[in-house]
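Thread: "does anyone have the structure for this chain?"

Original post by V.I.:
We have the sequence but no experimental structure in hand. Need at least a predicted one for the grant figures.
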Amino acid sequence: MFFFQFPWLPEALLGAAEGALTVRAMSRETVRPDAFSESDLRQYAAALCRPGVLTAAINYYRVALRHIGRTAQSIRPIAAPTLLIWGMKDRYLSPRLTEGLNAWVPNLRVVRLDASHWVQNDAPEEVNRCLLKFLASS
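Reply from O.Q.:
Generated one for you, tokens below.
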């Protein structure tokens, strides 16, 4: 997340050679070796090369650090029923980040799966099952 705070540098590195570094990470850091097909990876690479795509994705991480230190009183709880599907083998995001969320999201359901950062690609059947169950109960 700290690397993403630099202007233009993350976009330059992650977008270099048609997003090769990003696509390589996607293909090598999954739980399932077939989580991404060659066609999937080509489409991701093409999408990464579109103007503004990487910046939009990276801006999510840039803005997240701007809220560090906010007081609890300034954060409004999320009242809507919320489903969080978490990959327990995520190389980038620790499962500890799911702890204590009920204080801010009282109607939260957390599902932890044996998956990587790309949980929907590692465990598509389980993700779909969780989503359908959640949507049917909401």
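V.I.: this helps a lot. The longest strand covers residues 82-87.
O.Q.: and Residues 74-137 form one domain.
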